[in-house]
Amino acid sequence: MKSRFLLMPSLPLLPLLLAGLAACQDPAPAPKKKATDEPPAAAQDPKQLYAEMLAKFKEQGIELDLKQKSVSVPAIANYPRDPVEYLLIHQRGKRHEAMFITKAQPSILNGALLLVGLQRGKNASVRDIEPFPTREEVEAGAETTVVTPPVGKPFWMTVNWLDEDGERVEHCVEDLLLDLTTQEPVQDASWVYLGGRMARIYKNDPEVYVADYEGNLVSICYLLPDNHLATMRHKDARDDQNWWLSDDVPEPGTEVRFVFHAKKPKLLVERDKRRAAALKKEAAKAAAEQAGQGKEPAKAGAGK
Predict the structure, then answer these.
(1) E strands along 2-82, which residues?
(2) How many CB atoms lie within 10 A of CB 83?
(3) CB neighbours of 144 closer than 8 A, spacing ≥ 6?
(4) What is the mean pLDDT of residues 9-36?
(5) Would you tell me how many other CB atoms lie within 10 Å of the CB of residue 257?
(6) pLDDT recorded at residue 24
(7) Which of 206, 198, 176, 183 is nearest to 267 (CA)?
(8) Does 131 sit behind a cis peptide bond, omega within 30 degrees of 0 on the bond before it?
(9) What pLDDT shows up at residue 159?
(10) Which of 15, 21, 25, 105 lies at a C-alpha separation of 20 to 30 Å from 238?
């Protein structure tokens, strides 16, 4: 007899989130009761719901910082067998192509991300080119599809851990992801929050939060449907063979904190400044070389 995963419906975090937010606001006036209205169900204390939600986060090792608008989860560094397709997965996800692995339940992590203000974007999409290229054109390298990149309000991610000397090391995820085309850490990447989705895994079963079942959380490549929580946006993100671990990734098994940021952290601001300065220097060097090539060499005896 074949075995299957038995999934409980995901924790309904949205009511907890709404109740928790409401607890911090002035209560709205209660609507006037009509004579025909049914007696209202006993309302649960919003503050109690909020406390229960925070207890769930703590149970999963999720740390929430509402002031800094960040969420961190415990994870371990992984060494994949294949090119990297995921920055972060749950332990039941695709280990053979993931950089970090967490035990935190995806639906509960997603609730924390909503609470710090991440906004759902739109996943990448793909369609066939019309009219479709001929066989000869395809054999010559013509594209057969049009890929539209994901869009949405960006967020950022960092990872930190203790080194051999007990010192805290922190990197933005871009510095940990090697672009095999350039042989450098990825540049000009951004990240779009998708939020996952509810669906039936088996016919006639109740809907579940799919990421709880599949365990794939943050993708580097464009993947459909959007069962995962977030995706990278990059000109080469459609290539699932283009990504590997940089030299800055910690040793496999290293315990880390994987941090999601709704506000751009200082580490990323400084990285962007270094990148802008490097590009400016390269542009100035190229301009100087071009100007030098445009000058005619001095003639022998000139100026005598």
Answers:
(1) 63-65, 70-77
(2) 18
(3) 128, 129, 132, 133, 138
(4) 47
(5) 17
(6) 39
(7) 176
(8) yes
(9) 98
(10) 105
